[in-house]
Hints:
Blueprint: H1 3-18, H2 41-57, H3 81-92, H4 101-114, H5 124-133, H6 138-154, H7 178-182, H8 186-199, H9 201-210, H10 217-225, H11 236-242, H12 248-258, H13 265-274, E1 278-281, E2 287-290, H14 298-302, H15 314-325, H16 329-335, H17 339-345, H18 349-362, H19 365-371, H20 386-399, H21 405-411, H22 418-430, H23 435-448, H24 454-461, H25 466-488
Antiparallel strand pairs: 1-2
Amino acid sequence: MSADLGSWWSDLTAAALVGTARRQVPRLPATLGVGRPDASREVALLDAAALGGALRVAGMRTRKPEPVKAADPDRRSLPPSRAVHLLELLLHQSPVGARLVPNLLQVWLDAADAGNHRIPHHLLPDLLELASATEQLRPAVRRAGDARGTWLAAVNPAWAWAASDLTPSISLAHPVDAEAWAQRPTDRRVHEVARLRETDPAAARGLVESTWGSDAANDRLTLLSTFRTGLGPDDESLLERALDDRSAKVRELASSLLDGLPTSARAARMAARLRPLLKPRGVLRRTLEVDLPDKPDPAGVRDGLTRPRGVGSVRGWWLQRLAAGAPLDVWTDVGRSDPEGAWGMVSERDARVGIVEAVRARGDHAWATAIVADVWPPDLLALIPAERLDATATTQLVRATSQQVAAVVTALPGPWGPAFSRAVLQRLTAEKEPAALIGQLGIHLATGLDPTTRPALDRWALKLEPGARERVARISQYLVLVLEIPEAFR
């Protein structure tokens, strides 16, 4: 619409809001060449609304558009034509299904980034739209979008994330306004703190501390739970403060988080309580006798030695907490051995449970390697050295029950080595009803299996029911494309 049409539409909207009895219906602009002079006010309003609505749906503007500055020249080069074709295939006719498309797009974007290539202009809107709903793609789309991507993002609020680099909105370089921060909704504050814990744990801690005294118990609990990310010695002071919190749940969470800090003052206190309970036995001192602790004093209760409901032995529970909170060096020092030897000296169940908790909380690679053959938690696999990972994971998979297979497979980050990939396929093919597992593990199988297993995967697919066969075919196609995409950029 021209400028006079824009004014007419604004006047018409006002007349519709207040009513024709209080405001005159504006005349249709002469440029339209239509209208019924003898129509009543009500009919004139309805006619005008119908006409104006049709013009707006047709795309005519009610205002003269402001001039838009042209995009800056792109700095990156176009990808090879084969790579462009593969990107079009993924976006418009994906052979791998919607769930796996983001993973292959990440492969494509990483290959483009490595060669300093950009996203073709005609595919930028598709990728910006997809990355708006798939946050993991945003950093790569922002880089490969180049100048044209930044230009498009600036004119569409839904794509604002791509307009510039993402940087923390709050930093310790700027003092925290506690009053303004406290007035934000809890879910927004938790989101901000969780994001900052990944990049600036100190800034995140500053935000939490600024309102700690006035926050509700549930807010303190939720905010403190974000400290599992980026947990470090600098968090100890707030966690010690939380041990005295009014809320039992906050105190329990603080104790759990302090289990991950083996150099903390609480760890030293737990070690002082644990050491007297450990006594080497035998002529060769190859066994550690572990006594159960007595009732703790108030300081022990403060450190987490409480009396929870639903535990079999309260003293056994206290032993677990001591083992989980004390430095693992206590066991190697008393046993005068390395982690593998010290673990072999301990037979007391509650002590072993606590040791496993400590290993997981601290991500201790040496202890994880020492205990992984004897315990179940599959997340220990992420702590095993690369040269031993395939063999260790294969052992875990072989002894896993049908209900535990998924836990082992999902615990091991992909891509997997050939040995573990073959073990996964052998285990799945041995299952009587693998369809549910295939559906549950589809993404993990696609991103984990070594491409050399594809022939075996295809042979297995022929024996499956149609639904499961289609899912396996998509995984097989993924393994083809994950090799073909980088090759297309060469």
